[in-house]
Specification:
With 239 residues, this protein is mostly beta strands. 0% of the residues lie in helices and 63% in strands. Strands 1, 2, 3, 4, 5, 6, 7, 8, 9, 10 and 11 form an eleven-stranded antiparallel beta sheet that branches. It is elongated, with a radius of gyration of 19 Å. Pfam families: DUF6662.
């Protein structure tokens, strides 16, 4: 078993339009990686689109954009379900990293995966002093997010979510912690040179993740926020 280097991510400040919803009535999407504990009201529905741009590997040229379309619905006043459709685009040049980047890739957009999730709120931040919720998700991906190469990946995550409102909802704090389990198998590729590491044996990963974020409403329905997210993985081959 080997451990991948843990890493922290600090999300850039971002403005978000929340289309007429109030934080005491709906599960607003105020962050990127961090999820809130507020449930969607029963019968409520929301459609949200995300785009996350990534760049720079310290060598060569690397740029990628992840896309996600989310459809979320309140199944009860405490239970929220969601379905996601994922895609990505990538442009790399001059990158050869053992076990990670076997060659250049360039395409504007490809469908890359699907996901489903359930969130159950034990306490809600609108009615209680703090919101506490459990979050469970399952996903299937067929493109590697880093290299853009073919990779079948099955993932399950279990998280504990917390959220609190300050100043009548003008300031929102949220934090997540959780674990995940992944089964993955890479597709075969043309190796750039003899001895290049690119295993096609099945792999298992166990992940730990934690993060927190703060959001501020500076105008009606407009928010600006920042978040910090940490993740570390333990990986082993099973084939």
């Amino acid at each position: 078993m080997r451990k991948r280097n843990g890493f922290g991510r600090i999300a850039v400040l971002s403005a978000l339009l929340a289309l007429g919803q109030s934080p005491v009535f709906a599960d607003e999407q105020l962050f990127g990686h961090i999820k809130g504990a507020e449930p969607m009201p029963e019968g409520g529905m929301e459609v949200v689109g995300y785009a996350t741009h990534r760049w720079d590997k310290g060598t060569g040229s690397y740029a990628a954009t992840d896309y996600k379309l989310e459809v979320e619905r309140g199944l009860t006043n405490r239970l929220t379900g969601a379905l996601y459709l994922k895609g990505m685009g990538i442009d790399t040049q001059g990158l050869r990293i053992d076990g990670y980047m076997p060659g250049d890739q360039r395409y504007a957009f490809k469908l890359s995966g699907v996901e489903g999730s359930l969130k159950y709120a034990f306490l809600t931040p609108a009615r209680d002093d703090i919101g506490i919720a459990a979050y469970l998700s399952f996903s299937k991906d067929w493109i590697d997010a880093h290299s853009g190469q073919d990779k079948d990946k099955y993932n399950m995550e279990l998280k504990l979510l917390s959220q609190k409102y300050f100043l009548d909802g003008q300031v929102v704090w949220a934090a997540n912690t959780g674990i995940g389990s992944t089964y993955a198998k890479r597709g075969a590729v043309a190796l750039p040179y003899e001895g290049f590491e690119w295993t096609t044996d099945p792999e298992m990963e166990i992940e730990y993740m934690a993060g927190t974020g703060l959001s501020y409403r500076f105008a009606p329905n407009w928010y600006i926020g920042a978040e910090v997210f940490y993740e570390t993985e333990f990986e082993t081959e099973v084939g």
